[in-house]
Amino acid sequence: MANHNSHHSMRSLLQTNAYVDGHWIPLEQRFQVLNPATGAVLADVADGDATLTERAIDAAHKALPSWRAKTPKQRAELLLRWYQAMLDNKQALAELMSAEQGKPIAEAAGEIEYGASFVAWFAGEAERSYGDVLPTQSSGQRAWIIKQGVGVCAAITPWNFPNAMITRKVAPALAAGCTMVVKPPQLTPLSALALAQLASEVGIPDGVLNIVPSSQAKEVGQVLTSHPLVRKLSFTGSTNVGKLLMQQAAESVKKVSLELGGNAPFIVFDDADLDLAVTQLLACKFRNAGQTCISANRVLVQDAVLPKFTEKLQQAVSQLKVGPGDQADIDYGPLINQAAIDKVQKLLNDATAAGAKLLTGGKVLDNLGPLFFAPTVLSGVTSMMAISQEEIFGPVIAIQSFTDENEGIRLANDTPFGLAGYFCASDYARIIRVSEQLECGMLGVNAGAISHAYNAFGGVKESGIGREGSRYGLAEYQETKTITLGGIK
User: Fold this and answer.
1) What is the pLDDT of residues 367-408, one digit of tens each?
2) If you ran DSSP here, which 8-state letter would residue 94 be given?
3) What are the positions of the active site (predicted)?
């Protein structure tokens, strides 16, 4: 940490025990949380198991009737107090996140604001959730629809956004009158526990939000997907794990929201503003060191502008600064762990062996530490290479070329995934055509940053089910009930 004061502010939000029914539960078994920039141990965290998970579900179930009985305004007021507490503690939360996750403190502070924005948004949506009065079917009957919270919900969240991936599941659940059990990631549980501390301080009732940190993901996931009291599971993570959880949840027909892997195309057409395309690609690709589900994975550049675009891109990439998260003015920090480095290295080796050309980077920055990877640009990539089929999840731009619009669209859609997509173009007719043909849940046109609480976040095909954020994000936590009243004279 930069100085003694900031270290002190971080400590005040450092919780290392599980949070169940409003209590901090110390457990004998612990697991270590490391700082990826230094390898230092940040904390020994309580290692929740199946038994603790069941206890958390029971607490959520017990808290449900009184939470559901509150008016939407009462729930909204508590959510807004939680939102304010996040903003008031933005710096401490950002330092804690940077320490456990690696992203620069300034970027982490941006995530705290982004994460908090979901809480404010869904506080508003709580009071704007409407039913329907249905047309009269016969003179003696009336019918209407009401929306009700689904009940106890479970969330399993990833390490790349330790704050926002939690708030955008918890906020709509709480707004809808549901209670929740969260299993945060083993690599970054401290941000989740800090959020729970703030929730408890502002008066969110015991049992409404429960956090079970754990190194035993399979065991905890099994309980969350099989427990009869859990009515809904929201998961963000890998496609393979998502498929397994969906199978497990099918046994008791739970509702699921899944935000899974992506393989986002970023298409640069020959009519694009190339300077804009470069800045938007950099914003999209190097955020969080490339460790985002909506990161540009396949950069498709039209032949006619390939040399010019590549030159501008290399120039821009050479300006990027890499360093530990607590250092000012850096663009990105370390990757999360050695496995992440190994994966990037393997994809690069595979691509260069198959004929791709390394234009810049491609190596670990040993002077900084084992998990810092240089900004990398690779050209001559083909759709057959593994780097085009798997999520890179690192600071690597892999460039493929294409000839005409139809080929660009065909290449972009040639994947089982469909989370985000991006393209740069100027001709408005092309913008309309391409926007309608790309298979993805979210699309950035001349824009590399597309996440916002107002937007419906989620994917098509094997990238998932359901949406987060927007008014659709609240509906994911509600059941629709039709009521018919007869005997009217």
Assistant:
1) 999 999 999 999 999 999 999 999 999 999 999 999 999 999
2) H
3) 259
Q: Please report the sign of the dihedral spanned by the C-alpha atoms of residue 240, residue 245, residue 247, residue 250.
A: negative
Give the residue carrying structure tokens 């198959």: 354
pLDDT digits (tens, 9 = 90+) for 164-216: 999 999 999 999 999 999 999 999 999 999 999 999 999 999 999 999 999 99
- In angstroms, the CA 315 to CA 264 distance is 23
Buried-state track 91-112, b at ≥16 Cβ within 10 A, e below 16: bbbbbbbbbbbbbbbebbbbbb
pLDDT in tens, 289-311: 999 999 999 999 999 999 999 99
Q: Which amino acid is at 288?
A: N
CA end-to-end span of the chain, whole Å? 74
Tell me which CATH code domain 4-260+463-482 carries: 3.40.605.10
List the alpha helices (DSSP H) in 102-238: 105-126, 164-175, 190-201, 217-226
Quote the CA–CA distance of 171 and 201 in Å, as a whole number: 16
> Cα(307)–Cα(327) distance, rounded to whole angstroms?
35
Q: Domain boundaries in the chain? A: 4-260+463-482, 264-452
pTM of structure: 0.96
Give the model's pLDDT for residue 177.
98
Rounded Cα distance between 419 and 83, Å, is 28
Within 13 Å of residue 67, how many CA atoms lie on the same side as its CB?
30
- 3 state SS of 302: strand
Helix (H) or strand (E) holding 275: helix 274-286
Write down the CATH number for the domain with range 264-452: 3.40.309.10
Residue keyed to tokens 């890499």: 322
462 catalytic residue (yes or no): no
Average pLDDT over residues 42-47: 98
**Residue that the structure tokens 């120039």 belong to:** 315
Task: Write out pLDDT tens, residues 152-169.
Answer: 999 999 999 999 999 999
Which pLDDT score is estimated for 8? 47
- pLDDT for res 1: 41
What backbone phi and psi angles, to 5 degrees, belong to 402? -145, 165
Mean pLDDT across the chain: 97
CA distances from 396 to 299, 360, 388, 412 (A): 10, 10, 11, 18
Catalytic residue among 259, 405, 439, 476: 259
